[in-house]
Amino acid sequence: MSGYAAVSYWLDTCADDLTARPPLDGSIEADVAILGAGFSGLWTAYYLLQHDPTLKIAIVERDIVGFGASGRNGAWCTSGFGAGPRLLAKRYSRDVAARVHDLMIDTVGEVGRVCEMEGIDAHYQRDGELIVARGRHQLPTLHHIEEEYARIGRADHWQRLDAAEAKAKLAVTNAVGALHQTASAVVHPGRLVRGLARAVERAGAVIYERTEATGWTPGRRPVLHTARGDVRSDAVVLAGEGYLARLRPTHRQVLPLYSLIVLTEPLSDAQLAEIGWTHRSVVQSCALTVDYLSRTADGRILFGGRGAPYHFGSRIRPEFDMHEATHGRLRAAVREWFPQLGNVGFSHAWGGCLGVPRDFMPTMTFDRRSGIATARGYTGEGVAATNLGGRVLAAQICDVESELVSLPTVGHESRNWEVEPLRWIATRYLQRASLRIDEQATQSGKPPTGRSLTERLIGH
User: Fold this and answer.
1) Any residues with CB less than 8 A from the CB of 320 and at least 6 apart, and which?
2) Rounded CA gap, 240 and 246, in Å?
3) Environment class of residue 415 by beta-carbon count within 10 Å: exposed (0-12), middle (13-18) or buried (19+)?
4) Which positions ≥6 away from 342 have C-beta within 8 Å?
5) What is the pLDDT of residues 54-109, one digit of tens each?
6) Structural domain boundaries of the chain?
């Protein structure tokens, strides 16, 4: 692999020409200027053109379509939202939490609907999600999740599985119970983001690749500035997720945390049957440090996780995509979860940054006075949530009557992250402490207390 195909398995196998589209060549006028050709920017363009096919939309991208988190993620098209039901109910109300939950379930279906309508072969398959308790110390987490959803009137979202039922669903070592739901899907994100780009181009949008945005000027006719010219428009959409940390006005609005992934060689049908992964449910355990698994259409196991160090000053660099200590831990985890696979081989390893807002709450809002719109802060759960964000921004920009514009994400702005070195000290501490808590719980067989500073700070 070389060039952009080396970024991830998803770009390597997206069945698309990764040659960059022409860059912007001088200043232009548009109705809407969009920073970022990932899911947020492309979904926004897609629904804008659904509302008004005459709109002139210019999308500027520093690299190529899908270069960022949209082409690097764990393939989860999940009904999760970043801010969970407990946090939404606490900040707003149980009704609001239930409404967001229901909208996200519909959103997973909407992604599949668009794939079918636009002819995007994104390997979309809606087999749900499995949360596995690996050891008795993780069982209380299953109970807490059930309580969380019951409080908002959605107790039927999860089906509880005992140890035998969990192992029948997926033969994971030390599985003592699980929760399963049918709302989530799995996708090939590279095929999805590249196919979505072609759909918005067919509808009339223009994508300028290898065009780095350098800033913006708000106003009646806001301007998106790039290294290759300006785009003057009626609305500027900031859809750079974790990469917005590179720009001064949003530098402390999102924390770019790295999440890393390893991918096995394709397993045979017999191997997949042996571990019970004949479905394509997405999978995680109850670990505090976050792990996430999915199965590709050609039978590979993807294992992702947090743990790669946060870099001082919210730096984002290509060399940070690889962290051998973390990738090695992920490879070992695959073999520990599925020892029956023997010395399974690995074909790919990659990483990338996601955007974490200070309050874990996504923002999807348009300020008509400044002309600036933004959708960001998905905390690693953006494959489906970006679709909702695109619909919300399109409704606001086009001034369409919609229930979406009354969501708590509209008008929301997270407080800034702390200045350095406080940001680095706190983030590194939480990363290391989370790993220690998981290790201690595994060794002792006792669940975390939930009362530690780390658990209180990251619980959402």
Assistant:
1) 258, 308, 311, 351, 353
2) 9
3) exposed
4) none
5) 999 999 999 999 999 999 999 999 999 999 999 999 999 999 999 999 999 999 99
6) 3-73+189-254+359-406, 129-181+256-356
